[in-house]
Amino acid sequence: MNSKSTFIHCLLFIVIFVAIVFADRFLPAQSQVIKKSTTIASLEELYEEQELKRNPLEDVVVPELILDELHQQALKRKPLTSHQWFKTASYVEQERIVEEVSDRLYQHRDYLLLIEMLEKLGDKYGMAASVKFYSAAANSRVGDVEKAIVQYQTLVEYFPNHQAGLLNLAILLRKQQRFNLSNQVLHRAENVSAGRKLAKAQSLLASNYREMGQLELAREYFISSIEYRPNHAATWLKLANVEAELDLPATVVMQTFERAAALGVDQANVFFRAGSYGLSQGLYQRALPLLEKASALEASDDEYRKALAWVETELGNLAAASKHWQWLKVHSSDADDQLLAEHMFLALNQQRRERLKPLPKNLEGQYGRLFISQLQTSKQPKHERLLASKKWQTRTNILLAKRNNPSDLSLNLTH
Amino acid sequence: MANFDNPITAVSRKQQWNGWLMLAVSAMLVLAMVGYLYQQMSLSAITPAKVFHYQLHMSFKPQGKDVVVGTYLPNESERQKVLRLRSEAANMERNDFNSSHGLVSRWRGNEASESIKVAAILQLSSVQFDLPTDLAISNDIPNIYLPYLMATDDVQVHSPEISALWQQIKPQNDTNMLAVLNSIYNYTSSLEPLAFKGGTDALTALRLGAASCNGKSRLFTALARLNNIPTRLVGGVILKDGKKKTSHQWVEVSVNHQWVPFDPTNNHFASLPDNYLELYRGDLSLFSHTKNIDFDYQFTIEGQRIAQALLAGEGDSAANANWLQKLKTKLGVSEQTFAIFLLMPLCALVITVLRNVFGFQSFGVFMPMLIASACTLVGLYVGLMGFVLVLALAVATYALLAPLKLLKIPRLAILITVINMITLVGLMQVEQQLSLQSGLLSLFPVIVISFVADKMHDLITQRDWTSLVKSTFGTAVSIFMCFYVLQSSTLQNAFILFPELYFFVVVGQIYFGRWTGARLNELLRFRHARKFSDDVIGINSRNKKLVNELNSPQLLQLAADKLSSKQALARYDVPVPGTLARFDSLIDLKRLPKTIAKFDQFVVKPNAGSQGNGILVIKDNIEKTFISASGKEKTFFDIYGLVHDIINGHYSQLGDSDIAYIEPLIQQHSSLAKVSPDGLCDVRVVLLHGKVINAMLRIPTKKSGGKANLHQGAIGAALDLKTGSITGARQFNQDIDRHPDSGARLTDIQLPQWQQILDMSEKCFAAIPLGYMGVDICIDNTRGPLVLEVNGRPGLEIQNVTKRGLATPINDHLRQVSAVKA
Asked: pTM for the complete prediction?
């Protein structure tokens, strides 16, 4: 038995096989690289534009004039069935008429008339999805929520993919605090929706979960919603609030707040909430532009102004801070805030405060006392309640740290 | 040591030279081919092409209304070749039209429609622009470019915030095209990437400082348009293996009236890689459809390196195609299917090498090749899993059918039916992943597997786990090798460009058909015998030199038919066991009760059985309860069932039906009772042209279940040809000197009536003149030696047992024969 012959044949086979594998793997695949320089080329001719219609099915066309007449008839509470054209129309045309007239009434906010007209017509002409939708929406508008819910439920039973119907139904259920049921509907909406409607369904789901105390789930749905609707400031803001409630790292939450503010260009409230969060977390530099913007948008709002005064004070911008405290002293509608503003103004300007009433006993007043005691290097007042408060804890700790390490004092109190 | 003149050994040495010669010829062939390629068509002809299989699956639920779905299809362009494009949409009508945005396809259907599948094979090129450094931004924009300077709801060109941003990032020379584009690109590509699935307008991207491809591209567009540079968005898909729902957007800027691509998301400046599929131009949605239809979609992308030559019959290169390429185009089959046809002969050669050179066993000779071809359509892992699943199903079905004791052909027909039905159900489940073509082609090997199940079930019922493992492993290796061959772009290219290679494949087949070298696994199997003798022969040598050349098919058939061979032997006065009864057909079973009632001891045998399968030895009959050789109780119905199975061909090596016969029980010779307490031992005598060249005694053990089958654990004892004494013994490849069950010493025992055994063996040659034969002889206590059967393909394990190769005695004898003839 000659083993060499066997080995030679085996080796040869393996060598050929490996060579083929090698060639397959390492022979470069033909990939043409088109190298081009941009010398002036001839102009392109545009093709004739052909738009794709969203739904190019041939619709039944009802003459505009007839529709006007029918609309007027509905406004006068006359039954559509009495109109000559309606009488002679085919059933499909009649359905189309009901749909068109319902649409007009809904657009003109004639909700009661719409409800009345559809009730008079009965179920025969209410089979179209849009008619069912208008009917439910009109009932919702006039405050008959229970009836609206039943009608929406009927609509989505007949048309399970009706995105707007599902969303509106979920909103009404949510308003009634029926979160579980609302979520069931929203999960269905989630399955049949795409784009912005999907974003809306997920945002509503998130809000429901937040109400139900399931914050992690709420955060997940808000994030997912933002993926489909990244420019929706309100969802960013809701996400930031949930993240704050979840005690995520302040820098993470702050970034979300900042993004909400960046998108809510003219919404002072968004800027204020973002800035307030920054202030409460000791992120004064990041809070400042946000609160400045909030105050600029709503110059007369004393809450916004107070937050701005605080952040300027914390940053040691004494001139700016004094200006805001002085404004609050005069314009604030709240007596406690006026007193706080007066104390702060005098303290920052190293003026005597003996004649003033003591600072309010609320947490903000306590923080004011602590701040002023540090400013004047006087005896430290009690601050246990501040340390126990989620809102004031971080600022208090920063303040105490500064007092204990004067060398780190970032406040420049010299005028 | 074998003599150098020994013809068989000499052949082996000759084969060694043949091996080197083959190596040299192959090397020269490869060199010649490479040289020819360089001369004639450059090496690029055999380099693979990279293509992408692009599939878009859209699904929806019309719910009682008509539906319209539109999307953009891959379109031909300078950097995009669409090699094939097809769509499937039941109950829908497709309508395509070209617009300035791209190739729009619109399907219109009724409430019964539910999905659309688009499949394309694409070959893309990368593109790289060299932008002039001194080009100034022109204020004189031709009218046709004005739409690309306009503000839109999402591209807020005139927003003060966009202007303010530009003031921050603009370069010193803000009239230089390249500088401006650089600034815009640097800013937009540095935005934090966020994987938004919804659209992001330019302002949102700016305000968030983060965006997806859509937001970055829109902000790029807004800034470019602000600077009077015509810019447009482009939508498409990045072709990367896998399934996904994400499309991609980038921009094109008009520079010197040429559209230059930029992708700030993936950092491509004035360039695009070769996996960017452009579908539409403009700030558009990829899909438009009727409202509220629960629309969903998914892209499935698979890159593939495929032979350039397989694509050559398509499009503009069709004119230069050779006849094979033209045939492929004419048949209209896919590249993969054509590659299967093309490389099937080579696969067959690979199987030959794997079996005859490496010694791999497999289920079915060419079955792995068929499985591999199915794997090329569905993927190796899916294919292998499918193979295992179908095999398991087949064996399970077989096991379920076993109690029915059906005839072989109807049994196989039922197996095929069951597997076919299950496969069809399976195809329905995976219908989304498989094209119809793949599904149908997969059916073929599925049916073939049914036949394999038969063999596999036999191995399982015989508890022959070693063979099962070896065959499973060999099948897996063969499938993998064939799969690789079928997928190899190098081989695809080579065979389509040089159909002459088929000639070499045929030459290879002839070469291996004549090759009688040892198989690789035999070097291991006969390692023991090779320590003592270098003239051991392998299966190739036995089959080619001995069985094929010395044994005629008629005599082989006669040897396999035990009853006929017994008659032939009896005619030459060779003592054989008597036949008490035979059962040729199921009607004969009526006689069975009376027949077996007459005897207390008997043996039931299949006429065309092998390896001792189907044999039942009855040692006693106590009140109609039969006691087998292993001491188990057997009822009449057990025996009836066995005879029924034998007639139905369960144990037949010849066909689908057989004859059962009953022989009297042979009583072991008293001198062997101690050596073989567990069953009847037999002597295997190997003869060449009637001359005894080797012999061994096969001794059953408990492990072998009382059978004298060496593979199942029987002992092989070497016999001295002159004296008939045992010179050594082996069990499971280990030398032993005592019986594992009785502890009796095995060596130094001399077989009784040895000369009579030798004479009988030589007489067998006169009765059945097989040039190479094995004779199995047992020694009855009263009748003496009896020939149990003759074998036309005696195995080679005897070489391990006797430590003597067969080459030398064979060659000595052949030399003597030639001398006599001379």
From this structure: 0.64
